[in-house]
Design a protein that fits this description.
The complex is a heterotrimer. By secondary structure, chain A is of the alpha+beta class. Chain A has 23 helices and 22 strands. Chain A has a 6-stranded mixed sheet with strand order 14-18-19-17-16-15. Chain B has one domain: Response regulator (Rossmann fold, 3-Layer(aba) Sandwich). In chain B, α1 links the parallel β1 and β2. Chain C is mainly β. Classes of the chains: A alpha+beta, B alpha/beta, C mainly beta. Chains A and B meet through α1, α2 and α6 of A and α1, β2, α2, α4 and β5 of B. Chain B: InterPro entries: Bact_response_regulator, CheY-like_superfamily, Sig_transdc_resp-reg_receiver. Chain B: Keywords: Phosphoprotein.
Amino acid sequence: MDAFEAIKATFFQECDELLADLESKLMLLEQGQTDLETINAVFRAVHSVKGGAGAFGLEALVRFAHVFETLMDELRGGRKPCDTVTIKTLLRASDVLADHIQAAQGLAPPVDEERSAGLVHELELLTHGGEAPPVVEEDEDDFGFTPMAFDAALDEPLADLGGSGEIEVAASEAQTGWRVLFKPHSRMYGSANEAGLLLRELGRVGPTTVSVDAENLPTLDILVAEEGYLTWTIDLTAEVDEKVVREVFDFVEADCDLTVSPLGGAPALEFEEEPPAVLPASDDLDVAALLAKAAGAAPPEAPAPAPAPVAAAPEPAPAPAPAPVPPPVAAAPAPTTAPVPPAQVAAPVAPAPVTIRVDLDRVDRLINVVGELVIQQAMLSQRVLESGLARSSGIALGLEDLELLTREIQDSVMAIRAQPVKSVFQRMPRLVREVADMVSKQVRLVTAGEDTEVDKTVVERLAEPITHMLRNAIDHGLETPEDRVAAGKPAEGTVRLAALHRSGRIVIEISDDGRGINRERVKKIAIDKGLIAPEAALTDEQIDNLIFLPGFSTAAVVSDISGRGVGMDVVKRSIQALGGRISISSVPGKGSTFTLSLPLTLAVLDGMVVSAADQILIAPLPAIVESLTPQESDLHYVGGVDPVIRFRERFLPLIDVAMTMGFRDTPVVPNEGVAVVVETEGGQQAALLFDAIQGQRQVVIKSLETNYQQVEGVAAATILGDGRVALILDVDVLVTDMRRKSGRPDFKLAS
Amino acid sequence: MKKTVLTVDDSRTMRDMLLMALEDAGYHVIQAVDGIDGLETLAANGADVVITDINMPRMDGFGFIEGMRADPNHRTTPCLVLTTESDAEKKARARAAGATGWIVKPFDPAKLVDAVRRVAA
Amino acid sequence: MNEANDSQRELIAFRIGRQEFCVDIMSVREIRGWTPATPLPRSPGYMKGVINLRGTVLPIIDLGARFGLETSEPTARHVIMVAHIGGRMVGLLVDAVSDILEMNDASVQPTPDVASDQVKTFVKGIFSIDGRMISLIELDHILPQVEAEAA
């Protein structure tokens, strides 16, 4: 990747951040916080997108951002009100802006032109206050946002300045040179421009002859160093356009008197490297007349001079020393783009925390190595224990300290990958707007806990289930505005999205104040689909959770909005794939709450260590409901073959794991083993039969796919303290695999 | 000795582009992310030429230039403003605040370096 | 460089039962003694399971069984050759490593028709050294999923 491409990648990264910022600031506006700083922040975000897009020649993006920016400029200037209608338009404009950015990255097809043009029109209408449609807008090209438009941008206004056609003609007739009359104002020095540098610059165009008129120079006692006393006459012998000459004075044209006229051929003094400080006037040109002429030709874009800034105010001589030579900077420029604030920041505004950007690969490598360290440390501890050393021995005590340190390193390293869920939450307001529009409902999204941190991988995988559940909440949970009003609720429904930490896991709650789950209907669907027996007696909670059963959702109950043909069972499955759990609680007429809890990281897992046929296996703790020793009286055999176990008044299939996995051929006698009740997708429970439980521990997850492939019934592997590999069970596959043979006895046998 | 250019811009993209163009041209580049950071960086490290954006959080480009000109050490340090061609008003304001010149965005590296060279003593 | 000049290659020769095979030395990362592997459920018979190789989960293939030969339960005398196959690390269980050979490509003969199909899948050719017949093994098809794709 060359440097340009790398910067482009940075730009798109920055765009993501800008969009997130834009969204959050727009939300503030929507909540009524329409202060100048918020509006300014929105302006800046759009402005930065436009600036970068211009640099990379992303024209469609530039054009859209420009219209957006123009309206923001009106708003921050207070020329247009920041009212509800405007804010709604801005929100939709931010969506289109996001789409333009996606398209510019090639991640999405070009934005639908009608949609983009429609919003451009709306923005312009707001910008111009619904007055006569602005014809001028056709001239947008003027803004010079063609990439690398520098030349044109500089030249055009100057060409206008040239004014008279004579000069154009003269120029084209191979002009031999120009006489430049140049009288700096004091303000020119106040902006750190120097006559000497300008003369040097003119010297680069062609050979120059310079004379200076020092007639106005006062005596030293009253001389003000930065006052403009001198008038320079420069004869330039070069066949160039007048605009080339004027370009040299581009920066100072408003701060000096300047005339440029074709050279008559009058000889003048030779200009030597440095302009002589004081030279006698060699020419008796009518300066006043020339100055008047110059004033007449002042550039149209130069406004009346603003009051001189403080720095330009006359100061007592002597002039300050030349600009200090900066001390040699020892440190090379930082390769990263992270801001490096000075060592001591005394500013009242809170300084941004110092950050560095690191390749994710490097972090992952570190996490991997720390994983090895944890395993190695555990192995070492076990060896020492086996060697019979006293627990109070120096080695054993040292090992304990080592273990604490290792844990701490692991936690710290994991924290590097932790990210606030903000990045996912910020995508949701747009989704809510779109879905609400689609189903003609009024929805307010309230978010909380955006700063809650969780592993990057988890953050990334949260977006889909949250999206799905929000759609579901708006589409199914909330009533239509009419129904809500009829039910005595505000027409606008509220959906709440919150994140919090709870006992070492992250919990995401999505709740609505809608109608709640229609249990009669849910039960009927479940019966119709054969998911439960018609006579099954289920608790409210069990009925609510039926919606997670595979096969529950169909096109009949899931519209294209909430489902896209995907049911809640898929959501549940994707949550479980992350080691998470999901549940729903609902109050009829009041609304529903989905709660999902996830581990903070995917690199380690809390597991129960079990043994089966001489093998050590790990059962993921989140899937485990309870463990128990099977009693003879609780065991039954369906059709005399398939074992089931009574658990909380229900019969669960009892799965001999060692048999299922092919570790032995004859089943273990159930009451000689231990049963672990697990819950799988759709809230279905089963009991896994092992030989014994050895304990609980956190294990480092190792992929089997790195060197081999996926193995049925195995989620991953880990390395135990004794150095052996243990398999982590894929509880879902184990249980559903058995189900194919044994059907769904848990609901049908409900007593 | 290499000349030092301080770039003040809240956009990482723009900082990167300035850095690439200026370093290629043999300048030493130091960076700041807004006006306040710019003044602090300038006070701590000094610079031969300063390039600043206008629209920035905390302190914008105008505030930065005024602050810089108020410091006797940097009253004569050339300062170029990054602006868009449409911003005639901004140019005037920047000039009033004490900007030495301007660079029109989007810039091409050659023009940028040319502008820096023109104002660098 | 050497390879390019005269197609001279270094090979590791190993024994399974009474037969001798060899693989390119470049694909073998290390050789270690047998340690009991953790069996994988529902895997082909030649998959002995996985072991821990300094923190990496390494699948172990009983190479003899893979070739369709009769093999016995591995003992401490058996050897695991850790090989690099298509971006993966795989442990190959063999009876013993017997030799390091230098061989010229020209001396390799095509696999004779008498060999079984299963052998021919993996044997690229045969050659003789000191009157011993050694089969040159192509490791690319050793992993099971490649077989699944081919089927």
